[in-house]
């Protein structure tokens, strides 16, 4: 609630217990309550002082109950008050004229001269003798009654009801009266009404506990409607919270985290090792950030590189190959990795150099694309990737593990669409049924790595590698209802959103 | 992913069946296509150019269908219908046949001269005889060439297709390369002759052709194909001649594909002829053409090669995770245009890969087709038995990294950024945090931000010449600099990392100068005697450059020693 006048706290609550008690005594006398304006009139103080007193009393608990109401009433203006005290201008002019009359120029010099003269003339209280010897002179004609003053005095006494509306409006036109809205209180006794003021304590203190004085004290009630004080704490970015959840899911499923701390990658590991041909559009300047310094990678496992070259240009391992002129210069080009699958390729190559044991790997880290930026595309985003390598893995296994993974995210309705990806065959887009949108939406991509990728690495013939990936930003945006990716990622992040975002529970 | 736009009613007529949008969407999903959009020419015009321009445009319903990037055989209505009809077992996949000219005539011949070697060395050719076009077939024929150009032909860099009314020209044809000044002909849709040099400037402003000019623009010789009378067929990969242009009434078509990649040229030619030979008097037959290389070698095209792969039913079952007989697998594959038969030896299946399925290069591609025909969503989902123990990531070579001097590193530069924001890979986390504060100046003070993330540094010892470095950066932004706050953060971080204050085994800070910080308000941080970073009050110049107004203190340390 906002009050028209702010009463200083010290004045109302502390200094004037006497006033508060006077108010309480008045309230005690009336049954059914009283208006704060009447209280003000009774105690002969300004209404706003009583408003302050009411607020102070309210703060003491259930001593009184006060209901705010508003009423309209007539009030004297500054000029109106002057007239109520000293009489109307015309009356003042009339009274200033002696029986023998007064020269007009002298009369005009009086404070009320001009207004009073014309009003008194129109009332025919006075007459002007223009031809009088020694200049125009003014004479009284009758005896008068100053009705304007009388009416104003009635209003001043709070008896404006005795005047007719026409009269009030007339006075309003003369700017002597104004109609104002007054917010006042209807005060009634509260449940713990008393006419004496007991000082309320704000908080329990160690002294009160020690002395036992708390038993006699009254405590100021708490406002349970107000918010608490915000704790002084840090806030994790929503992306990091969601990332933690995904990491947890992979760990629960027995997946080992891959070291992904290499944003700079060679085209060889990012593309060639994945059997992605050198003319593939993803290798275009339009899609990939290439590095000018250091421009080229200078070290490759040489015999592996030869096998990769052969499978691209001539085929082998049961494959026809792409039959084009494979160039080492293309493979050497450094770039900002476009997917974490480059890391998976390095890990699988490393795995192939040892006696084979089944592995489950995962990673969640940044990847980079030379995209045109908009509300849903950034030049960098986080990719979540899972990889399983073992003998005899089937497409059914891939679907089974995806089912488990997405169930942990709270997504149980899945279906799979055949798709194309240069390094997986079969490739499947993963769709989940979105209950809100009432349609199937794509939630990830998956597939079985091609033999042309795995066999040159040196993995045993019967080993299959199944993998899937999704972005971290998309589920985070859906989870936290963010529409513009730039509000989530990058320096334009909205810190208020970071402060306010709840903990991440993916399965709810 | 390429998108093919087809008229719905025409599609359903060709499929011999009407579908609801939902039913057709379902069929696409199952087959690996995506019904991306249902629209009309009118709707597209309204969206792109506003309502007025769309006045009078056709409102025939169009289906926009996304096709996998390696399925060039589905890039036109003819191919889509054939693929779906075979999939639904309403049609047997046709056999494409290369034939010699009727009446024992000589095949058309394209002679390649050695001048082409430097610019576009390959060419293949074929003839479609007695074709019957309608308006729709004609449009589809042009559209397929465009789709092939955008996809397998990589915007004409790898392959460019030229199609000609054979009855307006006479072979043998010569594919050569000449200086642009010496080439002169009337190109398609122009009313007069131009030299090649003039054409290049003419097309600079052509919204379609300007994208291809760069392919030959700076070459001393431009590729050009003439007939035996010196008439220009085309100047690949830019434009055809007007003389030999095809029309609705064209009966016999000479097709040439010039290329920098011969494999792709053969596939492209196979696609054009397999898709449109359906409209020849003798459907699915293509008349051969001879190509003579500068060294005298002679090849006959189109290849239209069928290849047979033999694999076992067991292989398919084990890879997909199903249990089907060899016969039923053969039937599944046949539905994918891979005509298959059980060979009679055990569960071996002989699979014939037609020229339309250039995407099938390995047994795994056949396995995928079996899975698609079986229905991905009919496969029983099972959990792999793979037993593994999970590990979180640990840095193995920390000691190694510690020995390197961070100050020697330089930034990694990006060669093709689209905006100035992406010129280098970041070497520090501090600018990002300061920009974040600048974007959040309305937030109540103090602002306390941190980031733990990777930066990229050049490193000669790595195979790619660069490595990531994991750093911690924090800033305190308030009315007073709050050095003690940042210092307290360092103490707390070290306490959590179990590193005690101290000169030798522990950590300590000592006064240092660094241009980022205010003189006398910067300290270097040492842990176990090695410098790991700085903390201090930022230099006022730094604060103003980020359009900030309050004092700010910051800490920036390498945390790899503690991982």
From TrEMBL, chain A:
Q: Which Pfam families match?
A: PheRS_DBD1, PheRS_DBD2, PheRS_DBD3, tRNA-synt_2d
Under the heading InterPro entries, the entry gives:
aa-tRNA-synth_II, aa-tRNA-synth_II/BPL/LPL, Phe-tRNA-synth_IIc_asu, Phenylalanyl-tRNA_Synthase, PheRS_DBD1, PheRS_DBD2, PheRS_DBD3
**What molecular function does GO assign, one term?**
phenylalanine-tRNA ligase activity
Presence of keyword Metal-binding: yes
Main localization, broad class: cytoplasm
Residue ranges constituting the Aminoacyl-transfer RNA synthetases class-II family profile domain according to the UniProt record:
241-502
Q: An example of a Gene Ontology BP annotation on this entry?
A: phenylalanyl-tRNA aminoacylation
Q: Which PROSITE patterns match?
A: AA_TRNA_LIGASE_II
Record-listed E.C. numbers:
6.1.1.20
Q: Name one GO cellular component term.
A: phenylalanine-tRNA ligase complex
Which Gene3D superfamilies does this entry report, sorted A to Z?
1.10.10.2320, 1.10.10.2330, 3.30.1370.240, Bira Bifunctional Protein, Domain 2
Q: Where in the cell is it found?
A: Cytoplasm
Keyword tags: Aminoacyl-tRNA synthetase, ATP-binding, Cytoplasm, Ligase, Magnesium, Metal-binding, Nucleotide-binding, Protein biosynthesis
Tell me its family: Belongs to the class-II aminoacyl-tRNA synthetase family. Phe-tRNA synthetase alpha subunit type 2 subfamily.
Q: What is this protein called?
A: phenylalanine--tRNA ligase
Species the sequence originates in: Cyprinus carpio carpio
Automatic annotation (TrEMBL), chain B:
* Keywords, sorted A to Z: Aminoacyl-tRNA synthetase, ATP-binding, Cytoplasm, Ligase, Magnesium, Metal-binding, Nucleotide-binding, Protein biosynthesis
CDD domains in alphabetical order: PheRS_beta_core
Its GO biological process annotations read: phenylalanyl-tRNA aminoacylation
Q: Which cofactor does it need?
A: Mg(2+)
Q: Which InterPro entries match?
A: aa-tRNA-synth_II/BPL/LPL, B3/B4_tRNA-bd, DNA-bd_dom_put_sf, Phe-tRNA-ligase_IIc_bsu, Phe-tRNA-synth_IIc_bsu_arc_euk, Phe-tRNA_synthase-like_B3/B4, PheRS_beta_core, PhetRS_B1
Protein family per UniProt: Belongs to the phenylalanyl-tRNA synthetase beta subunit family. Type 2 subfamily.
Q: What is the designated name of this protein? A: Phenylalanine--tRNA ligase beta subunit
Task: Provide the species name.
Answer: Cyprinus carpio carpio
The organism's taxonomy opens as: Eukaryota, Metazoa, Chordata, Craniata, Vertebrata
């Amino acid at each position: 609630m906002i009050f028209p006048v702010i009463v200083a706290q010290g004045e109302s609550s502390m200094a004037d217990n006497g006033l508060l008690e006077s108010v309480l005594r008045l309230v005690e006398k009336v049954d059914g309550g009283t208006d704060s304006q009447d209280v003000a009139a009774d105690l002969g103080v300004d209404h706003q002082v009583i408003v302050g007193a009411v607020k102070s009393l309210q703060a003491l608990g259930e001593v009184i109950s006060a209901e705010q109401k508003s009423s309209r009433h007539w009030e004297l203006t500054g000029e109106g008050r002057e007239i109520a005290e000293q009489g109307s201008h015309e009356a003042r002019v009339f009274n200033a004229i002696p029986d023998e009359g007064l020269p007009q120029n002298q009369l005009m010099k009086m404070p009320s001269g001009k207004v009073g003269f014309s009003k008194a003339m129109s009332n025919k209280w006075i007459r002007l003798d223009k031809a009088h010897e020694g200049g125009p002179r003014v004479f009284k004609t009758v005896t008068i009654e100053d009705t304007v003053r009388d009416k104003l005095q009635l209003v001043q006494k709070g008896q404006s009801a005795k005047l007719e509306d026409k009269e009030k409006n007339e006075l309003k036109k003369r700017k002597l009266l104004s109609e104002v809205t007054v917010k006042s209180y209807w005060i009634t006794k509260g449940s713990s009404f008393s006419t004496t003021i007991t000082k309320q304590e704000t908080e329990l203190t160690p002294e009160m506990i020690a002395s036992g004085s708390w038993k006699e004290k009254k405590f100021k009630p708490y406002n349970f409607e107000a918010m608490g004080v915000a704790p002084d704490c840090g806030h994790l970015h929503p992306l990091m919270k969601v990332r933690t959840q995904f990491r947890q899911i992979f760990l629960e499923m027995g997946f080992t985290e891959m070291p992904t701390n290499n944003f700079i990658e060679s085209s060889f590991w990012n593309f060639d090792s994945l059997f992605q041909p050198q003319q593939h559009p993803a290798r275009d300047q339009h899609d990939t950030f290439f590095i000018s310094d250091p421009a080229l990678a200078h070290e490759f496992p040489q015999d592996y590189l030869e096998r990769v070259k052969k499978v691209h240009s001539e085929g082998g391992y049961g494959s026809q190959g792409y039959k084009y002129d494979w160039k080492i210069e293309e493979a050497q080009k450094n770039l900002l990795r476009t997917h974490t699958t480059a890391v998976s390729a390095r890990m699988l190559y490393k795995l192939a150099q040892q006696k084979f044991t089944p592995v489950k790997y995962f990673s969640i880290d940044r990847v980079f694309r030379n995209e045109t930026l908009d509300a849903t595309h950034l030049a960098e985003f986080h990719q979540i990737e899972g990889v399983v390598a073992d003998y005899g893995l089937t497409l059914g296994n891939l679907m089974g593990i995806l089912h488990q993974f997405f169930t942990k995210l709270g997504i149980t309705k899945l279906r799979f669409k055949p798709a194309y990806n240069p390094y997986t065959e079969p490739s499947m887009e993963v769709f989940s049924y979105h209950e809100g949108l009432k349609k199937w939406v794509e939630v990830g991509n998956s597939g079985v790595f091609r033999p042309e990728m795995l066999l040159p690495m040196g993995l045993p013939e019967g080993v299959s590698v199944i993998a899937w990936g999704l972005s971290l930003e998309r589920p985070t945006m859906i989870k936290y209802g963010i529409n513009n990716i730039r509000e989530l990622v990058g320096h334009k992040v909205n810190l208020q959103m970071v402060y306010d975002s709840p903990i991440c529970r993916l399965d709810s | 992913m390429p998108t093919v736009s087809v008229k719905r009613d025409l599609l359903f007529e060709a499929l011999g069946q009407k579908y609801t949008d939902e039913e057709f969407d379902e069929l696409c999903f199952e087959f690996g296509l995506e019904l991306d959009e249902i629209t009309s020419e009118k709707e597209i015009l309204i969206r792109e150019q506003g309502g007025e321009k769309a006045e009078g445009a056709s409102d025939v319903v169009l289906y926009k269908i996304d096709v996998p990037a390696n399925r060039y055989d589905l890039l036109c209505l003819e191919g889509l219908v054939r693929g779906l009809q075979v999939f639904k077992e309403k049609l047997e996949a046709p056999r494409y046949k290369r034939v010699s000219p009727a009446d024992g005539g000589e095949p058309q011949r394209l002679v390649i001269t050695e001048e082409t070697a430097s610019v576009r060395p390959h060419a293949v050719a074929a003839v479609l005889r007695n074709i019957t076009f309608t308006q729709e077939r004609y449009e589809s024929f042009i559209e397929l060439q465009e789709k092939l150009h955008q996809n397998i032909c990589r915007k004409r860099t790898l392959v460019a297709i030229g199609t000609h009314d054979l009855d307006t020209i006479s072979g043998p044809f010569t594919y050569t390369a000449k200086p642009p000044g010496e080439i002169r002909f009337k190109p398609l849709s122009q009313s007069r002759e131009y030299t090649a040099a003039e054409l290049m400037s003419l097309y600079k402003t052509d919204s379609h052709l300007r994208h291809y000019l760069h392919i030959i623009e700076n070459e001393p010789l431009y590729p050009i194909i003439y007939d035996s009378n010196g008439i220009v067929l085309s100047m690949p990969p830019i434009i055809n001649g007007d003389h030999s242009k095809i029309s609705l009434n064209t009966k016999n078509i000479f097709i040439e594909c010039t290329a920098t990649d011969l494999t792709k040229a053969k596939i492209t030619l196979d696609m054009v002829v397999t898709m449109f030979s359906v409209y020849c008097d003798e459907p699915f037959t293509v008349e051969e053409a001879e190509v003579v290389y500068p060294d005298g070698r002679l090849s006959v095209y189109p290849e239209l090669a069928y290849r047979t792969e033999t694999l076992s039913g067991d292989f398919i079952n084990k890879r997909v995770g199903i249990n089907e007989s060899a016969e039923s697998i053969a039937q599944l594959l046949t539905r994918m245009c891979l005509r298959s038969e059980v060979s009679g030896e055990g569960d071996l299946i002989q699979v014939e890969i037609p020229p339309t399925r250039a995407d099938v290069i390995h047994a795994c591609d056949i396995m995928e087709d079996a899975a698609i025909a079986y229905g991905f969503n009919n496969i029983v989902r099972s959990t792999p038995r793979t037993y593994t123990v999970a590990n979180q990531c640990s840095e193995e070579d920390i000691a190694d990294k510690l020995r390197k001097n961070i100050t020697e590193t330089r930034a990694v530069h990006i060669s093709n950024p689209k905006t100035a924001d992406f010129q280098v890979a970041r070497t520090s986390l501090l600018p990002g945090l300061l920009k974040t504060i600048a974007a959040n100046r309305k937030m109540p003070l103090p602002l306390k931000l941190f980031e733990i993330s990777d930066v990229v540094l050049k490193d000669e010892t790595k195979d790619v010449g660069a490595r990531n470095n994991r750093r911690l950066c924090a800033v305190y932004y308030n009315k007073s600099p709050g050095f003690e706050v940042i210092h307290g953060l360092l103490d707390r971080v070290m306490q959590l990392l179990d590193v005690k204050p101290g000169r030798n085994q522990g950590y300590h800070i000592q006064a240092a100068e660094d241009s980022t910080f205010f003189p006398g308000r910067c300290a270097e941080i040492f842990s176990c005697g090695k410098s790991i970073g700085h903390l201090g009050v930022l230099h006022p110049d730094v604060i103003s450059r980020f359009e900030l107004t309050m004092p700010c203190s910051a800490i920036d340390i390498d945390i790899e020693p503690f991982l």
